[in-house]
Amino acid sequence: MCVKFEWNPPASEAAIRQAEADYGGPLPEEFVELLRKANGGSTDGNLSILDVEDCVQRNFDYEVPEYLPGYFMIGDDGGGTAILINARDRRIYEVDMGVMDERFVVLSANSLGELLALGTALIERDHLRREDM
Fold it and tell me: What pLDDT score does 129 carry?
Protein backbone atom coordinates (compact mmCIF):
# COMPACT_ATOMS: atom_id res chain seq x y z
CA MET A 1 0.00 0.00 0.00
CA CYS A 2 1.45 3.36 -1.01
CA VAL A 3 0.39 6.21 1.24
CA LYS A 4 -0.20 9.56 -0.39
CA PHE A 5 0.03 12.61 1.82
CA GLU A 6 -1.10 16.03 0.77
CA TRP A 7 1.50 18.23 2.46
CA ASN A 8 1.40 21.95 3.12
CA PRO A 9 4.45 24.14 2.39
CA PRO A 10 7.06 24.25 5.20
CA ALA A 11 6.44 26.27 8.35
CA SER A 12 8.57 29.33 8.87
CA GLU A 13 11.14 29.44 11.66
CA ALA A 14 9.27 32.44 13.08
CA ALA A 15 6.03 30.42 13.26
CA ILE A 16 7.82 27.53 14.97
CA ARG A 17 9.42 29.90 17.51
CA GLN A 18 6.03 31.53 18.14
CA ALA A 19 4.40 28.15 18.74
CA GLU A 20 7.13 27.21 21.21
CA ALA A 21 6.68 30.54 23.00
CA ASP A 22 2.91 29.98 23.14
CA TYR A 23 3.43 26.43 24.41
CA GLY A 24 5.94 27.55 27.03
CA GLY A 25 8.74 25.29 25.87
CA PRO A 26 10.12 23.35 22.95
CA LEU A 27 7.87 21.29 20.71
CA PRO A 28 8.95 17.67 20.12
CA GLU A 29 12.08 17.64 17.98
CA GLU A 30 10.74 15.13 15.45
CA PHE A 31 7.60 17.20 14.97
CA VAL A 32 9.64 20.39 14.45
CA GLU A 33 11.78 18.60 11.85
CA LEU A 34 8.60 17.66 10.00
CA LEU A 35 7.22 21.22 10.26
CA ARG A 36 10.38 22.49 8.58
CA LYS A 37 9.60 20.23 5.62
CA ALA A 38 5.79 20.43 5.66
CA ASN A 39 3.48 22.49 7.85
CA GLY A 40 0.94 19.74 8.40
CA GLY A 41 -0.91 17.57 5.96
CA SER A 42 -3.26 14.66 5.54
CA THR A 43 -3.65 11.35 3.76
CA ASP A 44 -6.32 10.19 1.37
CA GLY A 45 -7.56 8.24 4.40
CA ASN A 46 -8.13 9.79 7.79
CA LEU A 47 -4.70 10.70 9.15
CA SER A 48 -4.09 14.43 9.63
CA ILE A 49 -0.90 16.01 10.95
CA LEU A 50 -1.43 19.39 12.60
CA ASP A 51 0.16 22.56 11.32
CA VAL A 52 2.26 24.82 13.51
CA GLU A 53 -0.49 27.43 13.77
CA ASP A 54 -2.97 24.95 15.28
CA CYS A 55 -0.89 22.43 17.22
CA VAL A 56 -0.45 24.36 20.47
CA GLN A 57 -4.08 25.45 20.69
CA ARG A 58 -5.24 21.88 20.02
CA ASN A 59 -3.05 20.62 22.88
CA PHE A 60 -4.51 23.24 25.20
CA ASP A 61 -8.09 22.67 24.00
CA TYR A 62 -7.85 18.96 24.82
CA GLU A 63 -5.83 19.65 28.00
CA VAL A 64 -3.06 17.29 26.91
CA PRO A 65 -0.42 18.83 29.24
CA GLU A 66 -2.77 18.36 32.22
CA TYR A 67 -4.12 14.87 31.51
CA LEU A 68 -1.23 13.38 29.55
CA PRO A 69 1.96 15.06 30.76
CA GLY A 70 4.90 14.16 28.56
CA TYR A 71 2.71 13.76 25.46
CA PHE A 72 2.10 16.24 22.64
CA MET A 73 -0.78 15.94 20.16
CA ILE A 74 0.53 16.10 16.60
CA GLY A 75 -2.59 15.03 14.71
CA ASP A 76 -5.81 13.06 14.62
CA ASP A 77 -7.68 10.43 12.66
CA GLY A 78 -10.68 12.58 11.79
CA GLY A 79 -12.87 10.40 14.00
CA GLY A 80 -12.11 11.51 17.54
CA THR A 81 -8.73 9.86 18.08
CA ALA A 82 -5.70 11.97 18.94
CA ILE A 83 -2.26 11.13 17.55
CA LEU A 84 0.41 11.90 20.17
CA ILE A 85 4.17 11.80 20.47
CA ASN A 86 5.63 10.78 23.83
CA ALA A 87 8.55 12.95 24.93
CA ARG A 88 10.08 10.12 26.97
CA ASP A 89 10.28 7.29 24.43
CA ARG A 90 9.70 9.32 21.21
CA ARG A 91 7.07 6.81 20.05
CA ILE A 92 3.64 7.62 18.63
CA TYR A 93 0.44 6.82 20.50
CA GLU A 94 -3.30 7.15 20.02
CA VAL A 95 -6.07 7.92 22.49
CA ASP A 96 -9.74 8.80 22.27
CA MET A 97 -10.01 12.59 22.57
CA GLY A 98 -12.94 12.18 24.96
CA VAL A 99 -10.85 10.15 27.42
CA MET A 100 -7.32 11.65 27.51
CA ASP A 101 -6.15 9.20 30.17
CA GLU A 102 -2.84 7.33 30.01
CA ARG A 103 -4.61 4.06 30.86
CA PHE A 104 -6.25 4.25 27.41
CA VAL A 105 -3.21 5.32 25.37
CA VAL A 106 -2.27 2.74 22.72
CA LEU A 107 1.01 2.44 20.80
CA SER A 108 0.49 3.45 17.16
CA ALA A 109 4.05 3.51 15.73
CA ASN A 110 7.61 3.27 16.98
CA SER A 111 8.51 6.65 15.48
CA LEU A 112 7.01 9.59 13.62
CA GLY A 113 8.68 8.32 10.45
CA GLU A 114 6.98 4.94 10.85
CA LEU A 115 3.58 6.60 11.35
CA LEU A 116 4.07 8.67 8.21
CA ALA A 117 5.07 5.56 6.25
CA LEU A 118 1.96 3.71 7.49
CA GLY A 119 -0.22 6.75 6.82
CA THR A 120 -3.15 5.50 8.88
CA ALA A 121 -4.44 5.47 12.42
CA LEU A 122 -4.90 2.14 14.23
CA ILE A 123 -8.62 1.85 13.55
CA GLU A 124 -8.06 2.31 9.82
CA ARG A 125 -5.18 -0.22 9.84
CA ASP A 126 -7.46 -2.78 11.52
CA HIS A 127 -10.13 -2.12 8.89
CA LEU A 128 -7.63 -2.51 6.03
CA ARG A 129 -6.33 -5.80 7.50
CA ARG A 130 -9.86 -7.20 7.65
CA GLU A 131 -10.44 -6.22 3.99
CA ASP A 132 -7.28 -8.12 2.98
CA MET A 133 -8.56 -11.36 4.55
Answer: 42
Note the pTM of the prediction, 2 decimals. Answer: 0.89
**52 phi/psi in degrees, rounded to 5:** -65, -30
The distance of Cα 117 from the centroid of its chain, to the nearest Å, equals 13
pLDDT, averaged across the chain: 90
Structural domains present in the chain:
5-132 (3.40.1580.10)
| pLDDT(123) > 70 | no
Report long-range pairs for 38-43 (Cβ below 8 Å, ≥24 apart).
38/5, 38/7, 38/8, 38/9, 38/10, 39/8, 39/9, 39/10, 39/11, 39/15, 40/7, 40/8, 41/5, 41/6, 41/7, 41/8, 42/5, 42/6, 43/3, 43/4, 43/5, 43/6, 43/119, 43/120
Does residue 95 have a pLDDT over 80? yes
- Where would I find the beta strands (DSSP E) of 77-124? 81-86, 92-96, 106-109
